[in-house]
């Protein structure tokens, strides 16, 4: 791998923990700060959604798996956070590597609170979230001025593993043209039912993107009415996108080659518009 360009790179000092986003999968979507951290870490504590090839960029570091996957035996969040404290107190440069962005449904905020509470210095390196980057790789923009002026990002389960009961699904259904759901495959039936009961159209376009931005990426296009059944046909990790922006994939699926359609039925604007 080539050297990083000249820059006033922050020092990764012993006893520090860097909470870094690894992006949605494609190693090329890492930030340069994250790559800098990989090259200087003594230990990398990584999640289940971190693409394994990324760890190859830290051959000098000890790799510790701390993945949490729904329905499978997983370490407790408190134990992970306290492990980070212990590693930092041992004078190691600790890279906490999390899929996507550490502060977007990644529990990075909880880990940061624990570290700060124990007097451990931290640095946060944001990453590209799967709800944006993963959909972009599927040819689905999360915003488009002909479709939506709002987008709502929702987690598909709460701390207990159940569908979030604290969310006002009715308000979300009425107030956001586009809804992006993380980790929602398991509870797709309940979520779809809530949205339909709140008045969302049964024929509304839906896309499920699994293993986003990796060579294993797959996209299943469906409707809100068929979402409960179709969600059982795919394996996590997956992002669910609900809204008319999904139709833009028919034109913007850039990995499948150029298209000449306008699925929204709008006249093309000049590039300067």
UniProtKB/TrEMBL annotation:
Pfam families: TP_methylase (PF00590). Keywords: Cobalamin biosynthesis, Methyltransferase, Porphyrin biosynthesis, S-adenosyl-L-methionine, Transferase. Its EC number is 2.1.1.107. Pathway: Cofactor biosynthesis; adenosylcobalamin biosynthesis; precorrin-2 from uroporphyrinogen III: step 1/1; Porphyrin-containing compound metabolism; siroheme biosynthesis; precorrin-2 from uroporphyrinogen III: step 1/1. GO terms for biological process: cobalamin biosynthetic process; methylation; siroheme biosynthetic process. Residues 17-227 form the Tetrapyrrole methylase domain. GO terms for molecular function: uroporphyrin-III C-methyltransferase activity. It comes from the Bacteria. InterPro entries: 4pyrrol_Mease, 4pyrrol_Methylase_sf, 4pyrrole_Mease_sub1, 4pyrrole_Mease_sub2, CobA/CysG_C, Siro_Cobalamin_biosynth, Uropor_MeTrfase_CS. The keyword rRNA processing does not apply. Gene3D superfamilies: Cobalt-precorrin-4 Transmethylase, Domain 1 (3.40.1010.10), Methyltransferase, Cobalt-precorrin-4 Transmethylase, Domain 2 (3.30.950.10). PANTHER family: S-ADENOSYL-L-METHIONINE-DEPENDENT UROPORPHYRINOGEN III METHYLTRANSFERASE, CHLOROPLASTIC, SIROHEME SYNTHASE-RELATED. Belongs to the precorrin methyltransferase family. This is uroporphyrinogen-III C-methyltransferase.
């Amino acid at each position: 791998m080539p050297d990083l360009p000249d820059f006033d790179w922050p020092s990764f000092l012993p006893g520090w923990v860097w909470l870094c986003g690894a992006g949605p999968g494609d190693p090329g979507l890492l930030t340069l700060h994250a790559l800098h951290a990989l090259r200087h870490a003594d230990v990398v504590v990584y999640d289940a959604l971190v693409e394994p090839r990324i760890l190859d960029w830290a051959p000098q570091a000890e790799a510790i798996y701390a993945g949490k996957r729904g329905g499978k035996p997983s370490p407790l969040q408190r134990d992970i956070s306290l492990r980070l404290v212990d590693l930092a107190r041992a004078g190691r440069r600790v890279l906490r590597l999390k899929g996507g962005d550490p502060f977007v449904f990644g529990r990075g905020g909880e880990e940061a609170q624990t570290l700060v509470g124990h007097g451990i210095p931290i640095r946060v390196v944001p990453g590209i979230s799967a709800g944006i980057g993963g959909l972009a790789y599927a040819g689905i923009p999360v915003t488009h001025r002909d479709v939506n002026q709002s987008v709502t990002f929702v987690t598909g389960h709460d701390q207990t593993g159940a569908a979030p009961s604290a969310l006002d699904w009715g308000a979300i259904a009425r107030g956001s043209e586009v809804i992006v759901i993380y980790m929602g495959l398991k509870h797709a039936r309940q979520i779809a039912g809530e949205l339909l009961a709140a008045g969302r159209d049964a024929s509304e376009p839906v896309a499920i993107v699994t293993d986003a931005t990796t060579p294993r990426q797959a996209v299943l296009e469906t409707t809100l009415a068929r979402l409960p059944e179709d969600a059982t046909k795919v394996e996590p990790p997956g992002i669910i996108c609900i809204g008319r922006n999904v139709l833009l994939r028919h034109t913007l699926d850039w990995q499948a080659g150029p298209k000449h359609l306008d699925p929204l039925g709008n006249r093309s604007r000049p590039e300067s518009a």
